[in-house]
Amino acid sequence: MKRQVIQNFLNLPGLSGIGLIDGRNRPFFFGPDIQLNTGQQDALAQGIQQVIETIPAGFDTFSFRFTHQVVHIYKLDQGLILLVLMADQMPLKTYRSAIHQLTATLMEDPHNVVPTFRMLAGCVTLSSSSMMPAAPSGVPGQAIPTLAWETPAPAPAPAPAPAPATVSMADLVAAMNHLSEGATQYLGKIIVTNTWKQARPDHPWLEQFELQKDGHFALPSQTNPATPVTPEQHQWVRDWVRAFMVRGSRTFRNFQDLLADGLLSPHEVALLVGDKASQ
Q: Most CB atoms closer than 10 Å: which of 72, 171, 215, 256?
């Protein structure tokens, strides 16, 4: 397990806490916003494990928010569960790179993750802007925060590149799948899939975009992927994407920053959002 990777992650601006649960060792929670006594830590770990057990196979991450923070829960190999508590203003690009490196180093020795991480975290030098370790005993009687969903103001997206004159069904499916892949890193596959379903406008033509359980789209076998779409059909897809982004922001405040964070190319932004991206 690489100490530098752990130090870099724990020093991310806006990181409020982290937790590791493996079902074998006492769970480890670290951070100013996870000040729980031993009993509360055990209760929280048990609750998270029960939630994980109800998730269908193939879904390995999900997220939710309370107050002004976002909780990401990752189901890793060997029964390991990683919890990350962060401020919803943390830049997505920074977090995406750091969490990828962290999960990779955790899986180098999955059977000893909790004790090893506990030891290394105690040796990490934290910057003044990052979190400080919570008191070991926690705050007696402190309750676990309750969920409070909020609807944030939409974030501005970058000006898109000009959309191509001819757009095919395959072009739209590829761009929408790319958006889904990025969104899954922050919302999880279940929430991404449900958000697409809830956001779909009431146009029968859109039903041919078959939504899979993993949040990806496919076209029916009888549909020619090279078939060009009309301007009206293209606008229906753009309306769907915009509704998806707005709904996603109710769960993750910076969700609309996905469009501005380099996840999609200017060409893909033009396909999926068009001129309305700058409005």
A: 215
Q: Where are the domains of the chain?
A: 3-123, 169-278
Q: Is 43 helix (H, G, I), strand (E, B) or coil?
A: helix
CA–CA distance from 188 to each of 77, 219, 226 (Å)?
A: 16, 23, 30
The string of pLDDT tens digits covering residues 115-126 is 888 887 777 666
Q: In what order do the strands lie in the sheet with 15-21?
A: 28-30, 15-21, 81-87, 69-75, 61-66
What's the predicted TM-score (pTM) here? 0.48
Q: In sequence order, what are the beta bridge partners of 83?
A: 19, 73
Q: pLDDT, tens digit, for every residue of 143-197?
A: 333 333 333 444 444 444 444 568 999 999 999 999 998 888 777 888 889 899 9
For residues 17 and 84, what is the distance between their CA atoms, to the nearest angstrom? Answer: 6
Helix runs in the chain, H state only:
3-10, 38-53, 92-106, 113-123, 169-187, 189-199, 231-251, 266-272
Placement of tokens 């029964």 in the chain: 79
Tell which CATH classification among 2.102.10.10, 3.30.450.30, 3.40.50.720, 1.10.287.110 matches the domain 3-123: 3.30.450.30
What confidence tens digit (pLDDT) does each residue in 247-272 have? 887 777 667 776 656 677 888 888 99
Whole-number percent of the chain with pLDDT over 70: 70
pLDDT digits (tens, 9 = 90+) for 197-232: 999 999 999 999 999 988 899 999 888 999 999 999
Q: Which of 275, 177, 274 is nearest to 225 (CA)?
A: 177
- Which own/partner pairs from 222-226 qualify as long-range (CB within 8 Å, at least 24 positions apart)? 223/169, 224/169, 225/168, 225/169, 225/170, 225/173, 226/168, 226/169, 226/170
